[in-house]
Amino acid sequence: IAHDFNNLIAGILGHTQLLLIEAPEEQREGLAVIEQAARDGRHMVERIQQFTRAQQPEDHEMVDLNTIINDVIKLIRPRWRSRPASTMIQTRIEKGQIPLIYGSPFALREVLTNVVLNATDAMPKGGILTIRTEQVDDDVIMEVSDTGIGMDEETQIRMWEPFFSTKGEHGTGLGLSMTHAIVVQHHGGRVAVQSEVGAGSTISLVFPIPRPE
């Protein structure tokens, strides 16, 4: 369906751009509105496709979440270094003795990257980011905490919804919804949030420990 919509939008956009080349001045404003609407429609289809791809299962294997943390920190650390000194992010990594879980390394890196970047964005004046892992009963828990601006109750309720964002034009509203889908639907896990306005947030990602067959 998305492919068909893309073809329709491409046709509208292409013909509109051709008309704009030779259109008289009094028609150009209306054609420009159509062109922008077509561009917006194309971006919307792309966002829906991204969300749909996140809901498709990945190849699973035994994964060490502590290794996932190492991978993600290496990826994101250069971004932190580009921040002004007054807004630097301090990191605290507290790795527990945890068993392997069954999952997709690619998808789990995407999950942690999304959560860490959201935590970073919540600390515009700098702060402390803590990532912790531990085993509790039959689960492995990975927690990401920040000392940022925190969230009100409504935001905590809606944060996992597709296309919900508090970042305005800078946010797609897909990162955390894809995170929720990957953890819950693909890994049989759970997500939880604790937050207070002005006091930071903690996102908990809970994964079941595989049972011996």
Rounded to the nearest angstrom, the radius of gyration is 21 Å
Architecture of the largest domain in CATH?
Answer: 2-Layer Sandwich
The percentage of residues in β strands lies in 15-25%
Could you say which structural class the secondary elements and strand pairing correspond to?
Answer: alpha+beta
Helix content: 40-55%
Low-pLDDT sequence parts: none
CATH topology of the largest domain: Heat Shock Protein 90
Question: Which sequence of SSEs, written as H and E, runs from N to C?
Answer: HHEHEEHEEHHEE
Shape: globular
CATH homologous superfamily grouping of the largest domain: Histidine kinase-like ATPase, C-terminal domain
Q: Give the C-level CATH assignment of the largest domain.
A: Alpha Beta
Termini distance? Answer: 40 Å
Number of helices: 6
Total E-strand runs: 7
Output mean pLDDT: 84
Polypeptide structure, described:
The structure is a single chain. The chain has 213 residues and is α+β, with helices and mostly antiparallel strands. It has two domains: 2-54; 61-208, Heat Shock Protein 90 (2-Layer Sandwich), CATH 3.30.565.10. The chain has six helices and seven strands. It has a five-stranded mixed beta sheet with strand order 2-4-5-7-6, covered by helices on one side. Strands 1-3 form a two-stranded antiparallel ribbon. Strand 4 (127-136) and strand 5 form a beta hairpin. Helix 3 (65-81) packs across helix 4 (105-121) and helix 4 (105-121) runs antiparallel to helix 6 (175-187). The chain is globular. It comes from Beta vulgaris subsp. vulgaris (Beet). Keywords: ATP-binding, Kinase, Nucleotide-binding, Phosphoprotein, Transferase, Two-component regulatory system. One of its GO terms (molecular function) is ATP binding. InterPro entries: HATPase_C_sf (IPR036890), HATPase_dom (IPR003594), His_kinase_dom (IPR005467), HisK_dim/P_dom (IPR003661), HisK_dim/P_sf (IPR036097), Sig_transdc_His_kin-like_C (IPR004358).
